[in-house]
Queue: 4 jobs
Job 1
Amino acid sequence: MVGRAMATISRNKFVTKAPKMKTSTEGGINWLKIGVAYRGRFEHPSATGIVSGYGDGYYLSRLRLNVTISPEHYLKFFVEGHDGHSLGYDSPVKPKNFNYTFDLRQAYVEVSTSGNGHGITFRVGRQELSYGAKRLVAAPDWSNTSRTIDAAVISLARPGIKVHVFASSVVQIDPGRFDRQSAGDNFYGSYAVLDKLVPQARIEPNPFWKTLPRVAGERGDYGDSDIFTGGFRFLGKLPGRVDYPIEIARQWGTIASDRLSAFAGSHTVGWTASKSVWKSRISAEFSHASGDTANRDGRRGTFDQLYPSNHINYGIADVVGWRNIHDVRTGFDFKPHKTLQTNVDLHEFFLATVHDGLYSDGGSRLVLNRAATSRHVGSDLDCFFTCDYSKRIGFGAGYAFVFFSEYLKQSVKVRNYSCPYILWNIKFVSRQTASESISASARFSIKQCRTVQLPGHEGNFPNLTERVVMESTTPLIQK
């Protein structure tokens, strides 16, 4: 039996005691878990970028290894490393999120006073943060790397309320050396879930504060940036199998000497067919984010999307981000088999204003043409499915086709864009007990897209997320 020694002082003598270890129902120790997850994805975009590049087919592989140690019910240590590579990518400059040697992805300590999902939990270290619909804060899993944050998080859970409060710094991915945070690049905030104030509904207020050092202002000066975001999410159900997720965000602050005033929102309505064998659902959504209407006036109007996962919200082609954009989406989701989820989405993208540019899913500006006569960027048709094939293996495939419209045709030399892909994922979890050696079991989990879960979230320290497409659950090891 593996144990650790505890020394106590009794009448000036040291007495060594062996602590009681957690045991499973079979009589073994369950304080140690080891996880292995591998994902492979082949994709063949018609261009390496929507405004430049050429077609290329390549294979992305990602391996994650983790260890969870829980010596007591209130204490947990979690460490995870990852390794990723690309094969067949011919562009001379590879994205940072394609290739990286084995590096530390997560490492945190968690102390909890809770039971049955109620109480206080404190987690400190490198970890993931994901909230709501992942429009503002998320650990996007589509890329070969996934965003992590060095953070201290306090979680409070009570009947009808869950609150996270955090102070953090975003980890910068660096394929050449150990991933680390950038000085002055800080992120603070809170996210709450209130599920008993309104019947059959949930309210999620979320204030955030993002800081950046030495950024450029519109008139050429430099200074620090302080961006404050205040907003909420409201989602629920109505009679007739209707659901309505709504999200609103307002921003203010300073960028160097410029004043920031921006806003964004997303408004969705969905209807689920009655007694449908395929569990079909039709949805419509309008998302918008403000842009800057004037240049060099000392006022900024472009919404800062913070740290999102846009792949699951604005098309699997990853063409646009939540900045200076209007997105009209219609969707049809159905489940022809209990293990198979299928989605069809059509997006129509328009700029909020041509005085600002088109921004990528990562938030950087791709195109700027203030003389354009049209705001219409294009149409994005997405068809994809995910399959939980077995307890060991899952896979998915999809096809995205983007028809570019007048704004881009007037701005750059561009052609329509397409991207087919196929992926597979396998996960192994082992548990060491006193009566047996390490044995492997596996579980691949794919959360379904655009589901509304009411009244609240499970667990004491959840990732408060709502929509996930082809993303395995986090952490990789679950009880």
Job 2
Amino acid sequence: AGLRAGDIICAVNGKDTLTMETAEVASLVKGEEGTDVEIKVMRDGQYVTVTATRATINVPTVTSKMLPDNIGYIQITEFDDVTPAQFEENLAQMKKEGMTSLILDLRNNPGGTVTAVTQIASGILPEGLVFYMEDKDGRKDEYKCPGADFEYPVAVLVNEYSASAAEILAGAIQDAGIGKLIGTQTYRKRHRTEPLSSGRRLGAQDHDRGLLHPRGTQYPQGRNRTRLHRGAGCGKI
């Protein structure tokens, strides 16, 4: 389609997308197979317009391989409806091959659905609350996991293109105490963050609620404020 890694989508079919969430942008890009969509991106400081033809593409969202010293490596490229099943299959294969530790690669992962990331978290985190969101009116949505039989140390790779659901999973793993984050500041670069080693400012964004923040810290996203709180079990971002 002519799109490149690092392109920032600015508009789809003439509609500005800079303030939209990943899911909103994706809904504009998706459409009837065989139709064209015009995507305006920022690339190397310049605007570039790309015309792409919509088609059904079946691309695995999870891949894995065994590294030396029985280190399992699993990469998740996005959190789609098919991702939990693919993750479970790849994780089972790594265990079968004798994995003793895991590298989870979330670099360049733009996010996806909260449902998908919560299902994956449920496969590796201990029992309890993964995270909950509270909006400006005090309404809460809780996401819990039943507890998983998972006893492997984890290293989570992140970078500036790790966003949304990827940040949720990375932060939950870190707060649960089963893994560490390795990499650079994640996508929430619009808001001040501390180095990843501190674990206190790893931001994430839900598709409908705006900015989420670890440990109940509250930051504005437009006119709304949303807080992400830690639970007693699984750890929260």
Job 3
Amino acid sequence: WNSLSWRRDALVSLPVKGRTCRVVDDGGNDLPCQVVGKGRNRRILAAVSDIPSVGCKTIELLPSKSALGPSHFVMDKLKNMGGTVKRNEVELGRVFAQPGGTVKPNEVRLDCGSSEHGQVFDLTVPPIISGVTEYSPVTVRASRGGIVMENEHLRLRIDKRGEISQLLDKDAGRRLVKGGEAVNRLELYRDNPGAWDAWDIDQPYKTTPVRIGPARQVEVIADGPLEARVAVARKVGRSDLYQEIVLRAGSRRIDFETRVDWRETHRLLKAAFPVDLSSATLRGEIQFGYVERPTHRNTEFEKARYEWPAQKWADLSEAHYGVAVLNDCKYGYDILDGVLRLSLLRAPVAPDGQADKGEHAFTYALLVHNCGFAESGVVRAAYELNAPVTVETGRCAGGEYSLLQVSGGTVVVDTVKIAEDGDDLIVRLYESAGGAAKIRLRVAVPVKDASECDMLETPGRKLRVSKDNAVTLAFRAFEIKTIRFACEK
């Protein structure tokens, strides 16, 4: 089920039934899959493409005659080459996007079982197909100085501290981390405000950093082809922090799935992103739009704004390039000298002496976009992080269903609900990028009439409804519109 107002691709997680299974779409076509986890935590990831907007798509989990490895389409490729090795006799090594040695790019090294006595096959791996998009598998490998994760867009190196010491945008040929710096650098500070302990962060906190030691664990826990994960475990003061760094095939987003057993007092934890970009302003999301803030502190007024709120994202962009930090529940940011920081946790003691102590689970992400902000998809990426595709049992008639469709890239449907004073359908939309837009909004139910209304749902200007139950709307920058559909019974 996709609750957002655009069609999207997604990895969905399903329970593994027995030793073997496969996932197919409504037409019976096999979907690219990957098994992750062990024991009771064993799951199967399936790449589902083109899930309808505010709608659903049917997929089916079926038993399979053979064991499902990390890349069953590679086994099919070997079989089609006329090889004599059976599926259950082939052990997949690792898929390399750009490996060294004798294995060529986009090829996989297969070490065969007893029937071939260890003979090695080199063969081309077909790209994973996702809707109209083709993309190569994600890979992960150990290398000198850390672990390298790579997909068709990004290559990153995770060092022994569990930080990203190198980040290359392969499409732009651009390195985003300066020498000696690291992205996703955790920073801990003493946090003792003079008053309002649970509400204020005093400016001098930057002068009292607290050292964080090296990671106790940095290891690969998922190695593709759809998703790669590196687990990082460390002590942060008296607290235990566990993080999984996630890179998916075809994605320009790096996720940091985090769990913390927080046991600190008067401490502030931040994640720092020192990226090699030059911009005088930073965009931060607010309700139904964004605001721009300076990245410098040249005036007393700017110096006083050393911590500021944003909702799902903050974006630092040049004219044709940028990065964004996304989050699912952390809304405090600061930026200075090219370092963007996200506030993760605090530890006040008044009025509650145990405030925020205990278990926390949250996700934040770094999105790299090889274009300007308006074309970047930052808004959509942040929504997708906050509203992941969900899986429910059942079957959709016809294989898929969409309650509504919007034909405008920067207009977002924020609310779909039943009217407070009747059975009419209420749809609230807004323009998200700061520019004029013209869209077509279509609903899947028969409509008698439609009108624009105010936030209290009072009907206003009538709208012309087409034969396929659609209306045409024109938006100004950041404009909010609420549409009321009177539907046929």
Job 4
Amino acid sequence: MTGCGRLDLAAWRRRLWIAPALASALALVAGCNQQEPQSTPPPAGQPTQVTEGYHTTQTRDGVMQWELWGNTAERFPGQQALHLNAVRMVFYRAGIADATLTSSSAEVDEQTKNMTARGNVRVINTREQLLESEVLHWDDARQRIHTDEFVKFTDGDQVLTGYGLETDPDLTDLTLRERVEGNVPDSARRQVSQEQRP
């Protein structure tokens, strides 16, 4: 070897052993200094929570007021309401099931217990009276169903249609507001009023 001086084989072997050991130690230290990866929030359009087979109840003084089911319940970022799919809600009077609401979907405010049912909304009571609309709102504090949308009410062979409605859950005290068509038998226990639009 010209110009290389003396080669110490023993020292060279020690350097060959130390180099990979030092590299491993440095990699270990670097790994310890790395922080755990933080979970990123879901996109705005994605739910933060999904519950399968959702079910909740509401009682007053120990008496059942209503039960609510949904195939799924989804919670979205920044929203207080739960979004339910394939909805069924049973209303009780004096603890006995008296009417059932079904709809394609609904939004439920967990604090106020108010609900907006959407899509093929139907309410049928134990007397087989049927209320149909695309949107119905449930006001839990007032225990009333209402909407400004088109509604259809069927009682046997009697059919009423109109826009805007308010009723109790079992369709006993029912008010149609505008553009009402159909006739009402004298024996029907409901109120029908019509307020013409300007």
